[in-house]
């Protein structure tokens, strides 16, 4: 029974009555939005700017005077520096346009990536938490004492199988996906302990730490070891348990949230000698007759370890065929 509208650049000017009848609680077009504004408007900063200055959107403000009660800002961490200042000015204009004062409106800012907002030994909020409160106070134009910070904490369910049974600790043999089997496996329990400071709470662990549990302190760990470590995490976070008489199942042995980072390469460079002795180990991906060049490098250099010249690797836009960015001047490659 709650009407709402998603108002962005893709919102059509008008839709057919048949489409409106299918979703009576959602305002699908601008005509309906201006004629009868809904209680909830999901939009963005750009559309708010248009709404404040565009004559066509004036009915939205006229019919909503004094009715603005909540302002919810999602992804609050994205508003920093000049963006935060611009947003603060925009919100002040929005309040004026809707005919309300900051004291009449409740502001909510949400973020899943702003700091570790835990309380220290003194019970005071940490620096990240204080920054988030200050941000919302400045954006909303209210006193910081009016801002209350709600912090979420991730919980890990207690183990169903408490005892550990004797099992072969073979890193290469993953336990079967049944919850009870995984919960009783010594390696699985040690990996779980890596992500838990104490039962019921969670901590952050790097992939290298997972490898250390599985393979011992022999860093750096190669690609095969890292892939196997990821397979272990996949098995531990995707355990299967039978449904009991009440229809309940055990939670995952180790529910995880992963943060994966990809570094964009500035380019690739390759040795010009297809018989390069450093092109890769036997059986490696470059050890293939179809690969026409030698060893690959992630940064520019003049010569390969084998002594041959190195050039930037490019590909044809049409067929993807790899080439070296060089000019054949006869006797020498330039």
Q: What's this, in brief?
A:
The protein is built from 10 helices and 9 strands.
Figure out the total of helices.
Answer: 10
Could you list the spans in which at least 5 consecutive residues all have pLDDT below 50?
A: 117-123
What is the succession of H and E elements? EHEHEHHEHEHHHHHEEEE
Describe the biggest sheet? 4 strands, antiparallel
Strand segment count: 9
Compute the separation of the termini in Å. Answer: 72 Å
Question: What Rg is obtained from the alpha carbons, in whole angstroms?
Answer: 29 Å
Tell me the strand percentage band: 5-15%
What is the typical, i.e. mean, pLDDT?
83
Subunit organisation of the chains:
single chain
- What characteristic shape results from the CA principal axes? extended
Structural class: alpha/beta
Strand numbers in spatial order across the main sheet? 7-6-8-9
Helix share of residues?
Answer: 25-40%
């Amino acid at each position: 029974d709650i009407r709402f509208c998603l108002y962005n650049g893709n919102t059509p000017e008008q839709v057919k009555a048949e489409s409106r009848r299918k979703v009576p609680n959602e305002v699908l077009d601008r005509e309906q939005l201006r004629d009868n504004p809904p209680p909830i408007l999901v939009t963005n900063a750009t559309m708010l700017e248009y709404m404040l200055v565009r004559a066509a959107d004036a009915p939205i403000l006229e019919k909503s005077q004094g009715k603005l009660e909540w302002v919810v800002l999602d992804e609050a961490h994205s508003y920093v520096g000049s963006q935060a200042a611009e947003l603060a000015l925009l919100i002040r204009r929005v309040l004026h346009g809707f005919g309300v004062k900051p004291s009449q409106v409740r502001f909510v800012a949400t973020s899943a990536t702003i700091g570790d907002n835990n309380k220290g030994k003194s019970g005071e909020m940490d620096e990240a938490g204080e920054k988030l409160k200050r941000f919302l106070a400045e954006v909303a134009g209210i006193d910081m004492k009016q801002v209350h910070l709600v912090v979420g904490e991730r919980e890990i369910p207690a183990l169903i199988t408490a005892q550990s049974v004797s099992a072969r600790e073979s890193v290469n043999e993953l336990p079967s996906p049944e919850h009870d089997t995984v919960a009783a496996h010594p390696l699985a329990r040690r990996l779980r302990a890596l992500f838990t400071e104490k039962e019921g709470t969670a901590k952050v662990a790097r992939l290298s730490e997972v490898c250390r549990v599985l393979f011992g302190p022999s860093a750096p760990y190669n690609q095969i070891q890292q892939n196997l470590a990821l397979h272990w995490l996949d098995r531990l976070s995707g355990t299967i348990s039978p449904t009991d008489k009440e229809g309940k199942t055990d939670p995952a042995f180790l529910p995880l949230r992963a943060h994966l980072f990809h570094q964009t390469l500035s380019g690739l460079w390759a040795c010009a000698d297809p018989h390069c002795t450093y092109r890769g180990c036997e059986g490696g991906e470059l050890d293939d007759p179809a690969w026409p060049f030698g060893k690959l490098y992630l940064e520019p250099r003049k010569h390969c370890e084998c002594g041959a010249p190195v050039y930037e690797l490019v590909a044809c836009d049409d067929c993807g065929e790899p080439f070296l960015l060089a000019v054949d001047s006869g006797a020498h490659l330039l």
